[in-house]
Every structure is written in C-alpha cells, then in structure tokens.
Amino acid sequence: MFTSWKIGLTGLSIIGLTVLLSRCASTGTMSVVRPVETDVFLLNPGRGFTSTSEVYNENLTNRRHTPCGVSQQRFFWDVLEPEEGKIRFDLIDSTIARATRNGQQVNFRVMCQDVDMKIPAWALKAGIKSPFYDNPVFIEKQINLIKALGQRYDGHPGVCFVDIGTIGQWGEWHIDPEAPDPKKIVFPTDENARVIIDAYLGSFTKTPLAALIAFKQKYGFGYAVSKGTGWRADCWGDMDSLGWNHMKGVYPPALQAANASESWRNGPVALETCWTMEDWYKRGWDIDYILAKALEWHATEVNNGNQAIPEAWYPRVQAFEKKLGYRFVLEELKYTASVGKGTPVACEMTWQNRGVAPIYNPYELAVQLVSKTDRRIKYRVRTDADVKKWLPGRSDYQTTLPLPDAIAPGNYELQIGLLAPSTGKPAIQLAMTGKTQEGWYKVGDIAVTE
C-alpha cells in the first residue's frame, strides 16, 4: 500500500555555515539526527560537466573525463524547420530521451548562422535576405519558431536551460569582422536584438535562460540579465598572454558593465572552454586561476568539448566539479520521535548547499514513512519547500507533517528525498550516507501509537 499527500508549509532561509556531526540523539520526545556527509562524486541533472552532440555518459567512458549532468545540443534553423511550421521536434525529443537515460538534462540553442547563414529555403523564398538579422521576415519567422519551442519545452523536466541564441555565428551573438563580405551579414540594431531577446523571455517563463556574455551594449547581454537571465561564456580559460585574453580582458569588465555579478541568483552560469583543458595544460596556463574564477562566477556547468582532462590536473578538476552548481546535504533533522495516531509530526531541518549556485529547476522535498513490519506500506508527504531558494550555505526549514487517520500504529523508518515532479520519484543525489535502492535517504525512526 502506498499513500501520498501534500501539505502547505512555511520555510525560513538562513545563510551560514555549521560543522557537520555524525550522531543521532534523543531529547525527550524529539530525535536529533545529524547524517554523515560524504565527499564522493554525485551525478546530478543540470549541473557539473557537459557533454556535447552525440556524446553522452554512456559513450564518454573511453576517456579521462568525469560523468556529465548536462547534454549540450545545438540546432541550425534550416535543419530544425525544413518546412514552415513543421518543426523537427523529434530531433530535440530524441536528445532529451537519451540524456534522461544517462542521468543528464539538455541545454539547447537555435543557430541561424555558421560562417554563412543557415536559413531554410522556404524562409528565403518568403523574403529573408541580407542583412538578415534586421530583415522583418527573419524576425517574424524566428519569433514564430521561438514561440513554438517555448510551447513544447518551457518547463520540460528534461531541459535544464535554454540559450538565447538565434543571432550571430553559432548563435553566439557575434559576427566575424574579417568575413569575406562583412556587408552581407550585419548585426541587428539594438531594437531588433531586444525583440529577439523578448521573444525568448516571453516563451520561456519556467525554464531558465542564458545569454551570451558580451562587453558591448549592442550585443544585448546587459538587457537580458536585467530581465532575469543567467549567462554563458564560450571562451572560458583563454589566458593568451599577447596583451589580450577573455579571462582578464573581456569577462570581468563585461560583468561589471552589465551589472551581472549577481545574475547567477536568477539563472545558470555556463562556461565552455576555449580549446580544451589539454590545450591549457600544453600552453602552461594557470589552472588554479581558471577554476577559481569559474567558482567565483558561481558556475553551474562547464564544457570541455568531450575531451580528456589532463592526468596531472585530474584531482583538482574532480574537487572543482563537486563545487559546481548545487550539492545538497541534510545537516540536521529534529522531529517528534513518537506520536499518536493522527498527530502531526513537528519537524525542523537544516540543509547545506556545498555548491556555488542554487538549483534552477523545480524539485519537491518529500518525507516518507516506511513500515518496519511490511515495507510495502508507505506514507509520503510532499512539502511545498522551494528548494530553488537554497543558495550556497545554510537553509533552515520548519514544518509539521500531518499523519493520515488511516495510518496503522507501529514503527516506521523515516526517509527524505528530492523528487522530480514529473515522476514523483527521487531525482537528486544528496551528499550523505543512507541512500536506499529507490533513491530515498534513511534519516531515522519514528513510532506511531494509538
């Protein structure tokens, strides 16, 4: 027998740090549990390293690389919408399905340009032409596509975030000034750039968005983050010492100019390597500086292009990976150890987020009672705790858990879990011992009396 119910709770968030203890004590009718924290690698969706294209965790194992919580996917417009309105959703759906099987979520981007434009033939016939990005037909048809994608994927449990793409080479919001014919493809006006950004903002109100970082105002970065997006940088690690590089010459002043240093609170920070970590190693770049900056910027995911991590750096990169995004541990749980049938259970939780960023997708904090005499008998309470507000550091949560009148007296095992709303099953691994085969975490025992 399985019974599930949901209650309304009141949560309190407090920032701070405490020392984790590994003991359980009873104080009167209250049990105090301090789970044992672990430092092991945890594969969790929407955070950590990113695989790309046709590489997923299942075929990443032939190289020295940590498993990935994100699958990065890119789609050219002419491939994604070969006929007007007939969007190849199957291309995105198949990547989501494969990523889900591999414990990953998908981040995707629409691209309208490689070096040359990648415009569908039907759209060219409809009137799209140079300078392209300011062409009214281009803007109209792109907005239609963005809206259709939002209708299908906004809030989709398999998608962790969406890039604000569309503009520039590979959707990166820049155009090569040394192109053979720089007058052929022209960057859009500020007004039209905002029209495209607004289309994404209006179409994705549940799924987070990430804007490409840029120093110049015309690239729309400052506007996007002012509206609540996260950001991404596609040349993370560039330490070229010939007078200019991204790590010191572009990203810090761009964040300052856009007032974006706190935007990680709203949306994810995603970083893609310039070249790969192996190239960094060969060039003698400062890996400690590069990794520290990613954590300072509160990065949720990083992309090393599916390439191996240098052996000499692997321990440092492993330690770095554990700090990316979120990493939750229940530090302390206080609850009523013995209650009468139908009496609510007083409950106080202290959580720690050991990562540098919150979780950006919705998950449900739940408590489950499992009968010790018949483990098929389970009672579940899904709370309304907003785990997206668990910022780095400490978060306290207090509530009462009502027990149903039908609950049988007896001894029960108390379990907690972070559930995916779409499945009702535990979906997030915690940095603590006690994990069950079903993904719950045993945290104590409780007696129910007549």
The CATH architecture term of the largest domain is Alpha-Beta Barrel
**What is CATH's topology name of the largest domain?**
TIM Barrel
Strand content: 25-35%
Dominant shape: globular
* H/I helix tally: 11
Helix/strand class? alpha/beta
Largest sheet: 8 strands, parallel, barrel
Could you characterize what this model shows?
The protein has 450 residues and is an alpha/beta fold. The chain has eleven helices and 21 strands. It has helices at residues 77-80, 89-101, 121-125, 136-153, 190-203, 221-226, 246-249, 251-257, 277-283, 287-296, 314-321, and strands at residues 2-6, 10-12, 23-27, 30-34, 48-52, 68-76, 105-111, 159-163, 209-212, 230-236, 269-273, 301-303, 328-336, 338-340, 345-353, 364-371, 378-382, 393-401, 410-420, 425-426, 441-449. Strands 5-6-7-8-9-10-11-12 form an eight-stranded parallel beta barrel. Strand 9 (209-212), helix 6 (221-226) and strand 10 form a beta-alpha-beta unit.
Keywords:
11 helices; 450 residues; TIM Barrel; alpha/beta; 21% helix; DUF4832; single chain; 2 domains
